[in-house]
Write a structure and sequence with these properties.
Layout lengths: L7 E10 L4 H15 L4 E4 L14 E9 H14 L3 E3 L9 E5 L19 E8 L23 H12 L2 E3 L1
Parallel strand pairs: 4-7
Antiparallel strand pairs: 1-3, 1-6, 2-3, 5-6
Length: about 170
């Protein structure tokens, strides 16, 4: 097999949205730190949406991006909490996947924290191939060829082979 066609996990992003409730946001920051041991970054609004009571500069959530071996380790634990079963609709056409963790206590080796209660968060996994940097580098940026993009089926096959995930329709 061509080594430029091998698929790998580029990053795993954990996301917690709290809206304008600052107490819930602080719990979300504690939750992601409790699960991974790394402090997340707060996400700030850029737009004003009066109906929702949002204004620019207001923190509304937090996120954490993991890369390398730590990302694969955490992804394995998160998939264990889902019993390694994902749905086909959780994969997009570009080969990425997203799923939610409804209760953090389902994750192996994570204990219940009474300060947090029962909460969950979202997980997004970005898959790449060698050479994907061409589309995002600073100099000589170029589009990717059709044959180099990751299809939905290739992403499903990768997750099945690499992590033992079962995909339901």
């Amino acid at each position: 097999m061509n080594k430029m066609k091998t698929i790998r996990v580029e990053k795993v992003t954990l996301n917690f949205g709290a809206g304008k409730d600052q107490a819930l946001l602080e719990k979300g920051v504690k939750l992601i730190k409790h699960v991974t041991g790394i402090s997340p970054v707060k996400t700030i609004t850029q737009k004003r949406i009066q109906e929702w009571g949002l204004r620019p500069g207001l923190p509304i959530g937090c996120k954490l991006t993991l890369r390398g071996p730590r990302a694969i380790e955490v992804l394995g634990q998160l998939l264990e909490s889902k019993e390694k079963i994902l749905k086909e609709r959780q994969f997009d056409t570009m080969g990425n996947l997203s799923f939610g963790i409804p209760e953090y206590i389902d994750i192996p080796n994570v204990r219940y924290d009474p300060d947090l209660g029962i909460m969950g968060f979202e997980v997004s996994v970005t898959l790449t191939r060698p050479g994907y940097r061409v589309k995002s580098r600073r100099n000589l940026r170029r589009p990717l060829g059709k044959g180099h993009k990751i299809t939905k089926q290739e992403a499903i096959e990768f997750m099945t082979a690499q992590f033992g995930v079962k995909v339901d329709v």
